[in-house]
Write a structure and sequence with these properties.
The protein contains six helices and no strands. The chain is mainly alpha-helical. The protein has one domain (about 1-25, about 35-115). The mean pLDDT is about 95.
Length: about 120
């Protein structure tokens, strides 16, 4: 189980470091913005600079997972981002749900493996 935890931690960390870094370095090609509400949302996301804040948090959370220090903090940061990914895809772009499911499963597995760090949150 320890090896599965390391694999999930590194995989989730790499996903968020790569895609978070893309907000700053633009090494992945960007398709044209879609029409409708999704396009308007993404236009505001990029034009306001909000993409840099989210990209920075993705890189920080991913690096915490890759380094292996403060993993619960990294999971907490990325958990909030994953909730927003789900909301975006459920409400505006359902075709992007499969990657969201994979990221969520990795996150939930790691939260379960580090559940001792989150015990104080769920205690009455």
């Amino acid at each position: 189980m320890k090896i599965a935890t390391i694999i999930a931690r590194v995989l989730l960390g790499l996903i968020f470091v790569v895609f978070g870094s893309n907000a700053f370095l633009h090494f992945l090609p960007m398709p044209p913005l879609p029409h409708g509400v999704t396009g308007e949302y993404l236009h505001a996301f990029f034009a306001s600079g909000y993409v840099y804040a989210i990209g920075g948090l993705q890189v920080i959370g991913g690096l915490l997972l890759l380094i292996g220090r403060f993993v619960p903090l990294g999971l907490t940061i990325l958990g909030a981002i994953i909730v927003n990914i789900w909301l975006f895809h459920l409400l505006m772009a359902p075709e992007g749900l499969p990657p969201a499911i994979v990221v969520t499963l990795l996150e939930l597995f790691l939260v379960w493996r580090y559940r001792h760090a989150f015990a104080g949150i769920v205690r009455p």
